[in-house]
Amino acid sequence: MTSTDTITAISTPVGEGGIGIIRISGPTALNAAFSIFSPVEKFVFPEPRQFYIGHFKNLSSKIIDKGFLVFFKGPASYTGEDIVELHCHGSMLVLKKILYEVIKSGARLAMPGEFTKRAFLNGKMDLVQAEAVIDVIRAGTENALSAASARLEGRLSKKIDSIKEVLADTLARMELEFDFSEDDTEADKTDFTEPLEIASAGLKKLLLTYEEGVVLKDGLRTLILGRPNAGKSSLLNVLLQQERAIVTDIPGTTRDFIEEAANIRGILIRLIDTAGLRETNDQIESMGVDFAVRKINAAGLVIYVFDATSQISIEEDKKLLEMVHGKKLLVAVNKNDLVSDSERAAIKKAFNGHKLVFISALNETGIDNLKNAIFEQAVGRTFSSSEIADTGGGAADELLSSLRHKEAAQSALKSLENALTALLQKTPLEFIAIDLRRALNSLGEITGEVTTEEILDRIFSSFCVGK
Amino acid sequence: MKSTSKYDVIIVGAGHAGCEAALATSRMGLCTLVVTMNLDTIGQMSCNPAIGGVAKGHIVKEIDALGGEMAQAIDASAIQFRLLNDSKGPAVRATRAQADRTLYKERMRAALEQTENLHLRQGTVTALLTNNSRQISGVRLDTNETFEAKAVIVTTGTFLRGLMHIGLNKFDGGRAGEAPSKDMSESLLSLGFTLGRLKTGTCPRLDKRTIDFSKVAEQELQGTDIIKPFSFSSGPITRRQIPCHITYTNDKTHNIIKENLDRSPLYSGVIEGTGPRYCPSIEDKVVKFPERHRHQVFIEPEGYDSVEIYPNGLSTSLPVDVQLKFLRTIEGFEDVEILRPGYAIEYDFASPTQLKPSLETKLIENLYFAGQINGTSGYEEAGAQGLMAGINAALKIKGNSPLILGRSQAYIGVMIDDLVTKGTAEPYRMFTSRAEHRLLLREDNAEFRLKELGYNAGLVTAPAYNIFSSKKKRVEEILSFLETTKVTPSATVTTALKAFDADGPKKTHSLKELLRRQTMTLEKVLSLLPDGLPRPLMPCPEIASLVETETKYEGYIKRELEEADRIKRLDNVKIPSGIAYENIHGLSTEIREKLKRVQPESIGQAGRVSGVTPAAISMIMVHLKKTGAI
Predict the structure, then answer these.
(1) What is the reported pTM?
(2) Rounded to a whole number, what is the distance in Å from the CA of A250 to chain B's nearest CA?
(3) What does the alpha-carbon distance between residue B72 and residue B99 come to, in Å, rounded to a whole number?
(4) Of A105-109, A216-220, B74-78, B369-373, where does mean pLDDT reach its minimum?
């Protein structure tokens, strides 16, 4: 039994690691890999089990990361098929970017346990391995999500179910048209467009929430930058203390820096600790540009702490700010209690174009505003006070938070758009029903499939059939 | 004629399933005996006088492609053909025909009588005989005669402990005016089969001479340019077509029904069996859809010469006096007389999860069930099962492996897979929505899907197969001509296309690409070729339409094929029989029980058993791997 499609997934655990691996398995694994990997030294065909160094580039040839490609020729591979492993740096961001590119070039995101499934279908697996895998698959179904993300998933299911409801009803009306065309069912036979438009609008709206969903589920890695004595550690402590910080103990994250996490306005903010740097006098310079860039790259948000009393050297700060160009950025103007109104106005002017929050880390003033601003930057919308009661996961209605769900919603949307175009072109109803079924199947990957029996139940309960 | 009591195959029953089964085994060269309670009711249509319809017409064409009889029988006896869903797409388009009930029956009996190796016998089977309750050995009749056979196919319809209801009167019967079979149920139970109870019903038959046709609307006949025969080997339909008429119930009708619900066996709790939701009685419609002020009634003639009318839509089990009273409130029926009252009937069925996909029972080797005994409803569903049971009984006797049709290969495959995998809670009828890839299962490609299988099984004759082969070649030639022939943009072509409501090509196109345009047909596309250029002759409309469908919807078809392949791959991973689900680590008790009951033959089938999760499937695969089965 050999598979005809090629699957891919991030194969290293979630969290910060030194390296990350993306695995691609299937007949077009090499093609998919070479659509993004360009080797430093040219070679015609990779030898199996050799490391090749090169760059990962996106379609517009922008370099994402530098790393290795390793090729395992089937059947001498884990799954028994051609496998390519792409080794890159362990940042989730880089891994996801590379994964996106691999999917764009024709591979499909693997289902949980699918590599292993292929492995035992191809006779590559011994008993011990197989049983271990079963546990993984089971753990995946009884997932150990945090309460917040469970609530997130619950809301998402509700939303997806309501879209499915609309689609299943519409499909039932179409099937009624096919199977009971001679019956006088008094069903509305004309309007199939409107419900499809409602459903596709719902999906579009949902897809827009992906970024926020990811932040709410995985948290947002936040880097606190600033010149010595600007008040970075005080701020860090305020944020951590007030929120009864949990110090995360994720294995493998201690190589370069550790993270500490705070729950800010319902969002897991993963503060990148600068502990190792506090001692030196001129931290930015001493940490080395390379190191700084790496940390900045890993961050989803940068809080730049500016000492309000050191306006004389403001140009230096601006230079440092250039390093974080393109990142989500907040400027926290610390020691606000020590400056006058006119000085504040001057600071505002100097940082024109940046989002400023005036705080005093020592006196713990302005911290609420800062938290609101962090929320705003993280999810791209204003924090409302009604969300305060809900400390678990934001107050957004429903959010997409996993790549698999996003893909499923996207493919459902694509099917619906096909259906709408087909309706417009007066394609026979049967083909619109095919697109509708596909949309339902895609959404079924998120919250369970709609069976034929359910469609028939809908027909029999809503329409008088049987001539 | 053979004068021994030993046969290869015995068929119990001669309804739609029994006839197809008997014809299949005898045509495959096996000495076959049909035992029926009444030789005069062979091929009887017990309910509405019609064959085909959406999904059912598809099944009839599949029966024909495999070498069965039903399509030819209806072609020879139809009084009105209709093509349904013509505008809704190539796969939901379907053929239906009203039959002359008597002609159909006679045609089917003649087919049986004219087939070699096929013997008929009137009698009631009272017991199935076995070797140690493991293997079938024959049957015993009410005359106490015994007949030996290598295989037995049971097609008893609604006769197993049939209990008929008209109002609160109930009486034993298998069909109007016919006795039920009681001993057969006992025999099945004693062999260990589980039986359940289903219910169905039928309309009163009305006297045509008492209906005022001036008060009802005539349903327009479809032209002979639209209608096509069922069988791929029948000639064009030339017989006279006679129309149906349409009338409606009204509030008065509904009131009478509501006032008399206490005398309805359905609503007074007398009936225990589950009835079909898609074929409700008129009392059901009135109760469940109180907002409706009328229900449609088709006035269907039962034949060219018959005075009997089938008022389709008025199935009922109300008392006869109430039937007459509500009928007479309907326009055109003011003075109507009933010839035969409507009734409901409850009967035993054997849950089809007790069957293998070959329709052989899991309990008793070489014993097969087909038709309503498996919980289905409909002549077409029954005929198809009879055919498959016949083919598989014959194949097994000959030492060959069974013919199992896949879900993307035939509606018959969908039906049997549904039945043996999921069982059924109500009489099972085929709907197009039951097929996940119905675009692949069209009426127009039934031969392309199944003819070769029928030929290999020995049912399709060599001449019939040769005709199909040349047709297939023709289709392939035209398709490849369309693909390889290019048209370059020119004023002539643009003008010609304009005339067909299509834009002129901006670059060189193949004829295939031009045919994909909405308004284009094969004929129009071929006319674009300059004179003198070689081209295929314009084929018959049937082939032209097939070529157009395959071309215009190629994208959809390809995707459906890909998805169907994914299912097929899992269906090809076989689960050995007798697998010990107790030994599979991690399966829940519930899932284990379900799998033990159904005994799926493949990973694909196991995945379709309701309640079996993907994780459970993975666990079974691990087990199969561990034990070296895959």
Answers:
(1) 0.79
(2) 29
(3) 12
(4) A216-220
CA-based nearest residue to B314, from B203, B429, B442: B203
CATH of the domain spanning B205-343: 2.40.30.260
Average pLDDT for runs of 10 along chain A of length 467: 76 71 92 89 84 88 89 88 91 80 85 73 57 46 39 74 92 92 73 93 88 71 82 79 37 38 72 47 46 71 89 80 83 90 88 90 88 84 57 51 81 96 91 94 80 76 72
Beta bridge partners of A83: A25, A72
Chain A residues within an 8 Å CB radius of B87: 428
**Closest chain A CA to residue B573:** A1
Query: What's the CATH fold of domain B474-555?
Result: Arc Repressor Mutant, subunit A (1.10.10)
pLDDT tens digits for A312-359? 778 888 877 887 888 889 999 999 888 888 888 888 888 888 889 999
Please tell me the least confidently modeled range out of A189-198, A242-251, B588-597, B620-629: A242-251
Mean pLDDT of chain B: 93
Q: For B305-346, what is each residue's pLDDT tens digit?
A: 999 999 999 999 999 999 999 999 999 999 999 999 999 999
CATH number for the region A217-387 comes to 3.40.50.300
What distance, in Å, lies between the first and last C-alpha atoms of chain A?
47
Protein fold of B7-202+347-462: FAD/NAD(P)-binding domain (3.50.50)
Residue ranges per structural domain of chain A = 7-141, 147-209+401-462, 217-387
Share of chain B above pLDDT 90, in %: 78
Q: Which residues of B touch A125 (CB under 8 A)?
A: 625
Residues B54, A178: C-beta atoms closer than 8 Å = yes
DSSP string, A323-383: HTTTSEEEEEEE-GGGS-HHHHHHHHHHTTTS-EEE-BTTTTBSHHHHHHHHHHHHHSS--
What tokens appear for B601 in the block? 């033959």
Q: How many cross-chain Cβ pairs, A to B, lie less than 8 Å apart?
A: 122
Cα separations (Å) of A315 from A231, A307, A308, A312, A332?
18, 13, 13, 8, 16
Pinpoint the residues of chain B covered by CATH 1.10.10.1800. 474-555
Which CATH fold topology does B572-626 show?
A: DNA polymerase; domain 1 (1.10.150)
A contact set with B (CB within 8 A): 1, 4, 113, 117, 120-121, 123, 125, 127, 130-131, 133-134, 137-138, 141, 175, 177-184, 186, 425-426, 428-431, 434, 437, 452, 455-456, 460, 464-467
Q: Which H or E run includes B310?
A: strand B308-312
Q: Which chain A residues touch B434 with a CB distance below 8 Å?
A: 452, 456
Domain A7-141: which CATH class? alpha beta
The Cα of A207 is separated from the nearest Cα of chain B by a number of Å equal to: 25
Helix (DSSP H) and strand (DSSP E) numbers for chain A = 16, 14
State pLDDT tens for residues B387-438. 999 999 999 999 999 999 999 999 999 999 999 999 999 999 999 999 999 9
Nearest to B85 among A125, A178, A186 (CB): A178
Q: How distant is the Cα of B388 from the closest Cα of chain A, in angstroms? A: 24
Cα–Cα nearest to B620, from A115, A142, B602, A3 = B602
pLDDT (0 to 100) of residue B165: 96
Which one of B96, B432, B433 would you mutate to disrupt binding with A, by most A Cβ within 10 Å of its Cβ?
B433
A147-209+401-462 is classed in which CATH architecture?
Answer: Up-down Bundle (1.20)
- Please state, in angstroms and rounded to a whole number, the distance separating the CA atoms of residues B593 and B214: 61
**B625 pLDDT more than 80:** no
